[in-house]
Amino acid sequence: MSLTREDQANLLIVDDDETIQRLLVIAAKDNGWRPRTAGTGMSAVAALDHGIEAVVLDHGLPDIDGLQTLERLREAQPDLPVIMLTGLNDAETAVRALRAGAADYLTKPFELKRLFDLLRQ
Predict the structure, then answer these.
(1) CATH code where residue 108 lies
(2) Does 1 fall in a domain?
(3) Tens digits of per-residue pLDDT, 19-37?
(4) Spatial distance between the Cα atoms of 91 and 81, rounded to a whole number of angstroms
């Protein structure tokens, strides 16, 4: 699925850190997305009912981790593009995320331009 859109697409931002959520919401709006937020994996899965077209998903969540959340998102919408974020520079986790269906994987801190370039692909 291509994320190149002329109109605003719904982007789900899943992170339990409210500061990161706010930063990503501002950046998403600046990049032409209509952001929604979730602070847990389960609330992310529930948000799929709102026409989500892409997801930015943190690995460290308080209820179920990002990989478990990714699996549930992929079960519900197999073609949904998901970009994983993590504070860990761990190659094994990156490989597991990509094998589970993540479109890409970024380690914090990351450049916002890089994230939104990936979402446009």
Answers:
(1) 3.40.50.2300
(2) no
(3) 999 999 999 999 999 999 9
(4) 20
